[in-house]
Specification:
The chain is α+β, with helices and mostly antiparallel strands. 25% of the residues lie in helices and 29% in strands.
Amino acid sequence: MTDKLSLLLYRTVPGRCLLKVLVSPGVSRLGGKVLSSDISRRIVPWYISKYGIKMSDIEIPADGFSSFNEFFTRKRKDVALPKSMENHLFCPCDGLLSVTQIRADSCFRLKGMPYSLRRLLNDERLSSFLQGGTALIFRLTPQHYHRYCYSADGTVLHSRRIEGKLHCVRPVALETVPVFAENSREYQVIRTTQQKYMVQMEIGALLVGRISNHPIPKGVCNVYAGEEKGCFEFGGSTIVLLFEKDMLHLDYDLFNEHCSGHETPVHMGQPLGMLLK
């Protein structure tokens, strides 16, 4: 969703009225069915051309993609993922990376809209625990590969799914409802092999955005860097990694990019830094 469209939908009364209709469960389900239907496959060539998507390394079914969503969640023939390395942190996806420190008053911004860590996690205790740590935010654009993996070896201690909320359309809500925190999101609290804690979160976008994570056993479960975690269907757009204080030593070049305030292009499996004990 473009910044201009975001401003229209969230900062004008007609836009917020339209938004209430667009994000209703019925419209979202209908949109999902359309993008998973046979007729939606006609969009695929146009989408490839518009966004210049490289297809030479993609697994293409013998009869072509059966729907737009099958194309959007496409798999690569050979995914060069890292072998598990105990002290390393790896990039979970292709995307544009920004880095920020977590403070008590942190107010992160996405597409010009603010959200707090407490509201994003919907967990005051966890957000307090992460104060002083580091947040890595990966923004996926339409041309990016929309499958993602775990970033580090560890043990999943807790999984949570938070359904998106509808926005109030009253003008009083204009400046008080953080867009990002209202989207659906899923996250896992992971204890790394260094016996410290991180969060890996996926966030779905407006309309039919859907997070499709692979199921894991209930209770405590071990995961490994490079292991596929899931994929975004159309509309899914962001992954966030959160680390407790003094846990992450970021790669030198990425640290310099962070200091310059730029988004950095990254790819899945790329080393991002070291996890400290």
